[in-house]
Amino acid sequence: MSGETTFVPGPETEAEYRRALGCFGTGVTVVTHMTENGPIAMTANSFASVSLDPPLVLWCAAYRSRRHALFAQARHYAIHVMRDDQLHLARHFARKGHDFSVADWTTNAEGQPVLSDSLASFECVRDAVHPAGDHSIIVGHVLRCTVHPGSGLLFKRGQYGGFSDL
């Protein structure tokens, strides 16, 4: 194939490795948690289903994030799959995790912030946290799930977009 490159991932090929990983399109999530100082949020695209029985999901938080410890230690949290018209929320919470002034939200039975009208939300209790390179893999047991109609926000090759209906 023309333009093909092969390399060994490492510090000297980090940019190439990031570009290769970017070939895989992902959904965009915002994870929320209530701290003793108020709600916090973090945008993440590393989200996956782990198990149907019991209902487990995972997401990953980077150690370098100033919000990492708050999420890795959180007993309860909520993961929100962003709709294709919620890019502003995803970008906002990527930068300003303590500012909820742009979001419509309520608290759930566990006192956690739940964003209104996301495509889907998964209200979780922490099941496990595993160290993995420069991230923590945070596994949650899903207590409740809410789904709204709409299309999801996608991220691929450094760009955001939607998914056209088939």
Could you list some keywords that capture this structure?
single chain; 166 residues; mainly beta; 7-stranded antiparallel beta sheet; 3 helices; 12 strands
Q: What is the strand tally?
A: 12
Beginning-to-end CA distance, first to last residue: 30 Å
Low-pLDDT residue intervals, each spanning 5 or more residues: none
For the biggest sheet, the summary is: 7 strands, antiparallel
What is the SS-derived class?
mainly beta
**Number of discrete helical segments:** 3
Strands in their spatial order, largest beta sheet: 3-2-6-9-10-5-4
Beta-strand portion reads 35-45%
Compressed to H and E, one letter per element, the order equals HEEEEEHEHEEEEEE
Mean pLDDT reading: 92
Tell me what you see in this structure:
With 166 residues, this protein is mainly β. 13% of the residues lie in helices and 43% in strands. The strands form three sheets. The chain has a seven-stranded antiparallel beta sheet. The longest helix is centred in the middle third of the chain and has 9 residues, at 87-95. The radius of gyration is 16 Å and the shape is globular. The relative contact order is 0.22.
Fold topology:
Elements lengths: L13 H8 L4 E2 L1 E7 L2 E7 L2 E5 L4 E7 L5 H5 L3 E6 L5 H9 L9 E3 L5 E3 L4 E13 L2 E13 L6 E3 L2 E3 L5
Antiparallel strand pairs: 1-11, 2-3, 2-6, 4-5, 5-10, 6-9, 7-8, 9-10, 11-12
